[in-house]
Each structure stands twice: as structure tokens, then as C-alpha cells.
Amino acid sequence: xxxxxxxxxxxxxxxxxxxxxxxxxxxxxxxxxxxxxxxxxxxxxxxxxxxxxxxxxxxxxxxxxxxxxxxxxxxxxxxxxxxxxxxxxxxxxxxxxxxxxxxxxxxxxxxxxxxxxxxxxxxxxxxxxxxxxxxxxxxxxxxxxxxxxxxxxxxxxxxxxxxxxxxxxxxxxxxxxxxxxxxxxxxxxxxxxxxxxxxxxxxxxxxxxxxxxxxxxxxxxxxxxxxxxxxxxxxxxxxxxxxxxxxxxxxxxxxxxx
Length: 258
Ligand SMILES: [Mg+2]
Fold this sequence. Notes:
The chain is α/β, with parallel strands linked by helices. Helices cover 36% and strands 19% of the residues. It is built from eight helices and eleven strands. It has helices at 10-17, 45-57, 68-74, 96-113, 138-150, 174-184, 200-203, 234-252, and strands at residues 2-3, 21-25, 60-63, 82-84, 120-123, 128-131, 155-160, 163-168, 189-194, 211-216, 226-228. The strands form two sheets. It has a seven-stranded parallel β-sheet. A four-stranded antiparallel β-sheet has the order 5-6-8-7, covered by helices on one side. Helix 2 links the parallel strand 2 (21-25) and strand 3. It starts with a strand and ends in a 6-residue tail after the last helix. Residues 253-258 have low confidence and may be disordered. Magnesium ion binds at residues 26, 28-30, 194-196.
């Protein structure tokens, strides 16, 4: 993995910034710091201000594991072109069958996990998120959740920050969602920034020259080619992206003012 903000890699960042690029961001742990109570997650004022400018310079989208309505509300006032929720599943045509499937899972899973302290199920309509942040024995909780989830049948499990996400098998993921939005917005390239296991669906697209995959935090197991040090550095990345587009403006009109 290489540091995207290092001097040596500014060239690649510029190359993408000067192309017809869509910028896509995960929310928690990427645009907003991770917090003990996820319902309180919010962007820093500086990030909000920078993202607003970035969204004027580039088509921007946010792809989150939260429900679409939840994350859209946190982005209110920022000109993003699309907000995608539920790890890529929402909005998506023809996923109502998946909604029914999740509705069927909920009572089964609640029954299975009823005796587990500190475990809570968040119903996000298209997926379930089982949180074990407040559990005292996290490993035992996680194991029990995974066992109960597998017993539901055809599921895909995605890990995260003290959460097990349960998705219908074969559901569109973040990578598929990004591809669809890139095409819809008539962009040639994409820059994607994410921090978690669910973002690996994007990183794994592995499209050199077409996708600039940036992970928040260095992790050798990640399929992302680039990283920023930690969540705080998102502001630096946004700043560099703004500068790059504004530079393009000056370079592409060299005769201006003569
Ligand atoms: Mg995240």
C-alpha cells in the first residue's frame, strides 16, 4: 500500500482529479470519525465545509452501510449527487424480495439472540446489523451472532466495527453500486475512500487506471492500493482534491486573460 498524500503519489491523484471522475466516500470512519454511539456520528465542521466545495468541483456520492435515509440526513445541505445505503443495496430496483426476506429473518434472529446481553439488532429493512459493542464477552457474542445468522439460510455476512451485518446472498454490494453510479453519471473514472470490510467490495474491483482505491488506515490485507493515515487525514485529502481541480482550471485555459 502506498500513501496517497505523499509527494511521490501526487501525480496519480492529479491524473484522476483531471479526468472525468466521480468521487465516492464511505461515511462512518471515513467522512465522520467512529464514535461509541453510532447514532451520534457526525462530520467535523471542517470536513463538512471541504466536502461542500468538493461536491461543487466533482460529482460526489456517498455509499454507506447505514440505511439511505439515515445517511442522507447526515449529509443534508451538501450537494452530493447520490446517497446509497445498506452497503450498496438501497436504492436498487427489484430488491423488494430481499426486503421480505429480511423481514422473515428478524423474528427468528431475535429469538435466537434473546439471551445474549449487550447485543442489539438494528433493522435496516434491506439488511440487519447486529451490534455487540455493549457486550462484555465480545468474541462469544460475535460467535453466537454468526452461528445464528448462518442458520437463517442464504446470507452474506460482513464484519465491521463491533457489528455483524447480515445481507441477502447475491445482494448488490458497494462495488456494484459504484459501477452503476459511475455509468449513470457518465464518468470514466472513480476515486473511492473507505475504511472497513464492506469497502473491500469496492477495492476488490481492481481496475488500475479507472479506480483509485484509498483506504483509511494502512492494512496489508486490504485490496486498496493507497491509504491515508487515519480518519483525520480526510480533510487533507479533500483539500488536495480541491486544489487539483482548481489547478486544472488554470492549466486548461492557458491563454485566459491575454
Ligand atoms: Mg466505514
